[in-house]
Design a protein that fits this description.
The protein is 63% helix and 15% strand. By secondary structure, the chain is of the alpha+beta class. It has two domains: 45 residues, YefM-like domain (YefM-like fold), CATH 3.40.1620; 39 residues, no CATH class. A hairpin with a 2-residue loop joins strand 2 and strand 3.
């Protein structure tokens, strides 16, 4: 499931309720918790591993070479080239990276 979907589906918790039941929320395995103040979202609590994954993704897409390749690929697809899915490629890349790190 994507991080955006996780955020949309996340439980909303008032800041006072969070303060009063912090230990319970920290034990919970939910992908994200939106903390609200007066009904407005002010913070998001996400598991550490998910945050690392998001930061790694941001690092990749902020790389100019990566972005150039993405744009070139999008243009090639518009011109009729057959593309590959991003999610499949990303999973393959991530699994190869994990194997190298271990």
């Amino acid at each position: 499931m994507s991080a955006v979907i996780d955020l949309i589906k996340a439980e909303h918790v008032g800041v006072r309720e969070l303060r009063d039941h912090l230990c319970e929320f920290m034990k919970d395995k939910k992908p994200a918790i939106v903390v609200t103040e007066r009904g407005q979202p002010v913070r998001v609590i996400v598991p550490y591993a998910k945050m690392v994954e998001l930061l790694e993704f941001f690092d990749e897409v902020s790389d100019s070479d990566t972005m150039r390749n993405i744009h070139e690929g999008a243009e090639a697809i518009k011109k009729g080239s057959q593309g590959v899915s991003f999610s499949g490629t990303y999973k393959k890349y991530r699994s190869a990276g994990q194997a190298v790190k271990e």
